[in-house]
Amino acid sequence: MSAPAPAVPVPAAGTGYIFKTSGLTRRFSGFTAVNDVSIEIPEGGVRTIIGPNGAGKTTFFNLLSGLLPPSEGRMWFRDREITGLPAYQRARLGIARSFQITNIFGRLTVYENVRLAVQAVHDGKANFFLPTARMGKLAERTERVLHDIGLWDARDTRAENLSHGDQRRLEIGLVIARDPPVLLLDEPLAGMSPTETHETVELITRISPGRTILLVEHDIDVVMTISTTITVFQTGGVLAVGTPTEIRANEAVQRAYLGEIA
Amino acid sequence: MTPPNRARRLLLHPLLWTALLFLALPWTAGSDPFHGQWSGFVGIATTMVIFALFASGFNLLFGHVGELSFGHAMFFTLGAYATALYANGFNVTVLGAVLAHGKGDNMLVALALSLLLALLWAWLLARIIIPRSSGIYFSMITLAFAQIVFFTTYRWSDLTGGEDGLQNVARPTLFGADVLRDSDHFYWFAALCVFVALCVLYWILASPFGSVLHAIRENKQRARFLGYDVDKYRVNAFVLSAVFPAIAGWLWTYFQQAINPDAGSVEYSGNVVMMSLLGGMQTFMGPLLGASVYYELQNEVSQATKYWEAWIGVVFVVFVLAGPRGIMGIIDDVRTNGVAAILRNPFKREEPVEPTFDEALKPLDESPAVSETGVR
Amino acid sequence: MLLELDRVNAYYEKSHVLQNVTLSVDAGEVVALLGRNGSGRSTTCKTIMGLVVAKSGTIRFKGQEITNKSPFALAQMGIAFVPEDRRIFPNLTVGENLRLAALAGRKGAWNEKRIYEYFAVLGERKDKPAKLSGGEQQMLAIARALVANPDIILLDEPMEGLAPLIARSVEEVVRGIRAEGNTILLVEQNARVAMSLSDRGYVLSNGRVMASGTIAELEADEATMHRYLAV
Amino acid sequence: MRRTEGLPSYPRRERLPAIHLTLAQLTDQLVNGITLGMLYILVALGLNIILGLMGVINFSHGSFFMLGAYLMYQFNGLIGFWPAILLAAVLVGLLGMAFESVLVRPLYRRIPEYTLLLTFGTALIFAQIVRRVWGDDAVRVDTPPYIPDSINIAGLAFPFYKDVFLVLLTVVILAGVWLLLNKTNIGIIIRAGTRDAEMVKILGINMPLMFTVVFGLGSLMAGLAGALAAPIYAIQPSLASEWIVLTFVIVIVGGIGSFWGAIVGGLLIGILTSLMALLWPPAVEMTGYFIMGIILLVRPRGLFGVEGLFE
């Protein structure tokens, strides 16, 4: 029933950057959320984006992951242009994203949630109508992911019945299930208790080797600890890029956040 | 899975219960076939199993993908007419060419023709409708397209016999034996066909394909971001969900030995919607139970009043308001909470979830999930 | 006290976004809610306005309990809310946007005519569809609150996403309406701006009130300011 | 949808080869189509306003049309022609308000499909109530004797009530609705509400009440159309289901929530349906659906269906 997946070979690493944008712009009525952003995001590491409310961080994520089409400008994933590519094809390329608001399959079990994410890799294969239980490889990978995110014991719970922290972790599980080279995590720590925050940060650190993680996050303490570089957005554009130390020392950034009193 | 768990799962297996239901149907309502006492109920039982299949096919789309089609009778009626035309033969002029066909008595050929016709139409519609609509917009559009089929069967009198339809369709033979003329034999034949078809449906729903459908029902956007081509799945589901009503239509023609345009009417489309909801639309058993309960109800109430449809409407409205998960939902509640808790608080039921994103009025599915002004 | 929140708790789905938030605003005061993104400042406004359910705790307005009342009832009692995304009706004219806001409002110092004098840019466009730039949208959103002559205005991130020059003009507008003696609960990202506009402030972090006091007191407490506001 | 005698009276003529069409026939059908279209517009616009503001699709809307016709029939003998029309429309409007506040309101929190399901169920109930009260057979209403049968315009005779009076009255009603939407405070609330009902609430408007009022208004328009149509069409229980599907089609063709969409969609389908009766009678009932199919391919949101509603 399912036609073979369009051949979209994952572009090889080696171009040096994971994402490149050129003149990327997104306007809403009376409002430019992302304004002429041309940046290159280097391969590997935790690349964090911070900025005041309304600075365009999430819109930037939405443009990269294909949720919104840009008003102007182009973007590349490694050496492949992805400007017009629909979201599901970007996901197949290995661009995985999580959402600011919890975005899981509420009435399916935790196990089913993760298995669906794992199974997406096999989408379009001939054996797609075989009963799920018999797809051994799937089960193996699903178990691995469930252990990784620490939800193995909750596997038969309906996702909507999980605690908030566990739901957010499941969301990360969905993102890492197919072992993608790039993760776009949009405020993964939002609304978490300190313990949950701690566990999740550990999880992010654990999964980061060998991938690029793009992170939008408000918890400055966490951002300063885990980021390789920080990109500061303000009013739709890039205000500054640098290591956490550089950003902390950057006066323009401090002004954007605090005004002049700092 | 531990062994006791497996035994329990087998015991609760929907296909087992389906088989039991089909075995039990002819015995209900005062019939006792072991002693030759058919009280005419076998006809109703046959109707029940055929509509169980019809409703299950509809429910593949509504219960499992979350798209409410208000026009599924079009596939039923296409299957039914294909069968009747094959069995009775036809002689018609289309675009100046005379098409003719003599009577046919191979029911498998009839089945193939039914499926072919329904699949072609479903595929064509799916390509038009699916990328352009979802939600209630989808419901309205399917309803309207079903009217095209309805009026075709109604108006193309040369071919379809118009309002009177096609009469005197012969029951098919089984390996040359004319056994299906007998109504209880036909019941078992229909029940077996429906059971086999339901096994296929169950297999589809249990496959990875089926779980992607559930994922789409729960959260289209997330499914897309996992890398699923959501529209392709919706098209495939739409086409698949036309298969089962077409089979049901094939059986229906042989059962009724006649067919008329009513089979493709809004009422028929609406009836399967009601059956699915009454039984419980997100379950496999729901439409089967719903079809049985619907015709039982009709059978009882119609003896009391000729306005029986009003009472069906009342039952339906009560379910929409107070029991949107249907009979299966009530069973589920009783199993998890116990009867006492339900009686104490009869109206506190689990509500169906609201859509994750407001897709209700978006004819185009590509609408951004973030509202225009709601950018953060 | 005009508006009081007493140990209010609120959730988004399962996320505990307000934790025992207690604060008050007196008539004639401008009170700032400070904190980083996601600290619960906007949620506080939405909870007061009845848009987010307070699971526990009480909210009182003019001495009356108003916890979880319907938004329209609260508006009629004299609370105006300017949401951060402004929510202008672009299919209405500027004038119609204002008229709609005035419908359920009260008579008072502000009327449509005065609004047009005060916000010249709106006056020029009163009969045109409200397809406005970000700054103009914000002006209209504030004007929409004023025209109802409320007792208190909940002003959520009025300068969000605006270019610096435009943000400054919005700031001046807020300063102007403050000078007229309006009561405002102000949510503002930029601490300097917020504090220059306010009499008192509350610092929120992770849904909790971490510090409060007059602006002078808060400014003096540099450690707190840096811990919860700076990068 | 069982029987089609009750379909809006598409003239059932012998099939004529196209070359034999006379100008008179053409004009006749054109005017017929306009009348039909006007009634379609009234019904569809009511549905569309409700849909635009509340996101609720009302399957019982056709029943309200039918009830309007039956109530008109009922009161015609008691209080006279014009008061009967008025009373029928008002009663249907009140029924709509009660309907909304008792049955529809609990469902706003759920997905919109549930309202469709609910109103499908109530449509069944309404149909049976009508059968029980007024019987299965069609009933008729005659126009009062002082209304002339026909009127001569440019040498052609037109039925006065159907083709002249009704069309003009509908134009007046539509102008009234336009003024209501664009020049009154209620209109501002409705237009703003179609965009962002929550923000209207934040500005202090009692939206639950507005929902009830607007639902009543939409129902009143359906009831009024039914009452006005009573003297033209055979009044029977199948009216409801026949009209509701076409009403959906008009909404889809015109665009959800669009004032002008309902008008253009209604006229388009009314006129083309009538012309089809001349060109190819067997396809008469299908005209609307084919138009819908074509529109869907070319403009999926309908002719006027842009994001902005009631613009």
| Average pLDDT reading of chain A | 84
Largest interface: B-D, 51 and 53 residues
What Rg of chain B do the Cα atoms give?
Answer: 22 Å
Strand fraction of chain B:
under 5%
The separation of the N and C termini of chain B measures 45 Å
Helix and strand element order of chain A: EEEEHEEHEHHHEHEHEEHH
Counting DSSP E segments of at least 2 residues, the number of strands of chain B comes to 2
DSSP strand count of chain A: 11
Q: Radius of gyration of chain A over alpha carbons?
A: 19 Å
Written account of the structure:
The complex is a heterotetramer of chains A (262), B (376), C (231) and D (311). With 262 residues, chain A is of the alpha/beta class. Chain A is 33% helix and 23% strand. A six-stranded mixed sheet of chain A has the order 7-8-9-4-10-11, sandwiched between helices. In chain A, strands 1, 2, 3, 5 and 6 form a five-stranded antiparallel sheet that branches. Chain C is α/β, with parallel strands linked by helices and 231 residues long. Chain C has a single domain (3-229), classed as P-loop containing nucleotide triphosphate hydrolases (Rossmann fold, 3-Layer(aba) Sandwich), CATH 3.40.50. Helix content of chain C is 38%, strand content 27%. In chain C, the strands form two sheets. Chain C has a six-stranded mixed sheet, sandwiched between helices. Chain C has a four-stranded antiparallel sheet with strand order 2-1-4-5. The two termini of chain D are 35 Å apart. In chain D, strand 1 (150-153) and strand 2 (156-159) form a beta hairpin. Chain D has helices spanning 23-54, 61-79, 81-104, 113-134, 160-183, 185-202, 207-229, 239-254, 259-279, 287-298, and strands at residues 150-153, 156-159. In chain D, helix 2 (61-79) packs antiparallel against helix 3, helix 3 (81-104) runs antiparallel to helix 7 (207-229) and helix 5 (160-183) crosses helix 6 (185-202). Chain D is globular. Chains B and D meet through helix 6, helix 12 and helix 14 of B and helix 4, helix 8 and helix 10 of D.
Question: What structural keywords apply?
Answer:
heterotetramer, A: 262 residues, alpha/beta, 6-stranded mixed beta sheet, 5-stranded antiparallel beta sheet, 33% helix, 23% strand, disordered N terminus, D: 311 residues, mainly alpha, two-stranded antiparallel sheet, 10 helices, 2 strands, 68% helix, globular
Brief rundown of the structure:
The complex is a heterotetramer of chains A (262), B (376), C (231) and D (311). Chain A has 262 residues and is an alpha/beta fold.
